[in-house]
Each structure stands twice: as C-alpha cells, then as structure tokens.
Write a structure and sequence with these properties.
The chain has 2 helices and 2 strands. By secondary structure, it is mainly alpha-helical. The longest helix is centred in the first third of the chain and has 23 residues.
Length: 72
Amino acid sequence: MNEEWNDSDQSEADILRKAILAFQDNFKTYIKEMDNDLYEKSVDYALTFTKIDGVTFEQNGERHDNEEEETF
C-alpha cells in the first residue's frame, strides 16, 4: 500500500482517502505484529460497531451483516 500518488488528475478527496487507507494499513500491520491478541480484539470491536448500510463484513467465514438489531 506504499505506492506513490502523484497523479495530478486525482481530486483532493481521492488523495485523502488513499492517505487514510495507507495509514490504516500501516497501523493495522504494526498492531498485528506487536500484539496479535490486541489486533484480534480490535477486529472484533470494529466488526461490532461499524454499521454501513449495504455492507457485509466477513471474518474467518463468519458474516457480520452490521444491521441494527431492534430491541424492545
């Protein structure tokens, strides 16, 4: 993910998205290498609290639909 982004046709929003994704990837790699238990807990946390309509996450063959559950 450490590619150079010097394409002048890219919008500022595209450049920002790429920078955020590169940072996230580097951060994730560091945490996973330094403390795998913390990494696994972080993934579980993110899967639990990331709610995006129409997006389904899958981890180790287990689906995480992230749909709000109604509670009464």
